[in-house]
Design brief:
Length: 126
Amino acid sequence: MGAFIVWRNGGVIAAAMWIAATFLGVVLTSLVAELDRRAYGYVERGDDLIVTHGVFVRRLIVVPYGRMQFVDVTAGLLERWMGIATVRMHTAAAATDATIPGLPAAEAALLRDRLAQKGEERSMGL
């Protein structure tokens, strides 16, 4: 629609530039979205969970198992349709809350169970 309006007011060259700019915007957006998807990672260590993400600004979050209050698995309508889920770890300090999106639903449930078990084991001495 935008190309038609530009073509009516600016000619064929303006419409071609509009189409090229739109195509470039779609390609760049999909590239950044794919890089962002690949940038998420997590490692379960002995005493804590490390979550890393970010394309332009890399963020590293260390969540000690003993500080986790609860672990939540969510899946919206589109996520359920795609068979994926998001795991969220909540702590007393909001700055250390971590999210791992895009996990297969079965893997997300297993991760939630493992993290809950490790959290209970580590918080017994508190």
